[in-house]
Amino acid sequence: MTDIDWDALRASAVRVAKLAYAPYSGLQVGVAAIVDDGREITGCNVENASYGLGLCAECTMVGQLRLTGAGRLVAVACRSGEGELLMPCGRCRQLLYEHGGPDCLVDTPSGILPMSRVLPDAFGPEHLPA
Ligand code: THU
């Protein structure tokens, strides 16, 4: 799928960032992705008074991926509620890799890059014993 509307995807990420529950960090994070069947999914961060339990936006998005028909991520954009480009944290890069693989495209400060550049030499399911 090459016809990604990146501006629309970024706008969706900003829109859902404003739905975040982030009273502790004050950073509202939104993420939007295109799935290989063409649908768009989104997620926002959901924090907790027990700080370490907070969920990143990518976590809630992967929940939505599974709940709305599964599939593979093909394009991902992450933004703050103020429209700033944010990169997925290390843990979330692993999460995106699991559900999108090395060819999933990510909006980065260096341009649109595949996950193979965002998480080089990734550990993945292929490294587990059969
Ligand atoms: N956060 C995300 O939602 N995704 C990331 O990839 C980086 C960090 C959230 C977690 C926390 O609620 C807030 O940003 C500040 O770290």
From TrEMBL:
Keywords for this protein: Hydrolase, Metal-binding, Zinc
Keyword Plastid in annotation: no
A GO MF term: cytidine deaminase activity
Residue ranges annotated for the CMP/dCMP-type deaminase domain, each copy included: 4-126
InterPro entries named among the record's database cross-references: APOBEC/CMP_deaminase_Zn-bd, CMP_dCMP_dom, Cyt/Deoxycyt_deaminase, Cytidine_deaminase-like
Enzyme class of the recorded protein, top EC level: hydrolase
CDD domains hit by this protein: cytidine_deaminase (cd01283)
Keyword Transcription part of the UniProt annotation: no
Gene3D superfamilies registered for this protein in UniProt: Cytidine Deaminase, domain 2
EC number per UniProt: 3.5.4.5
Superkingdom, natural source: Bacteria
NCBIfam families according to UniProt: PRK05578.1
Record family assignment: Belongs to the cytidine and deoxycytidylate deaminase family.
PANTHER family: CYTIDINE DEAMINASE
Protein name (Swiss-Prot/TrEMBL): Cytidine deaminase
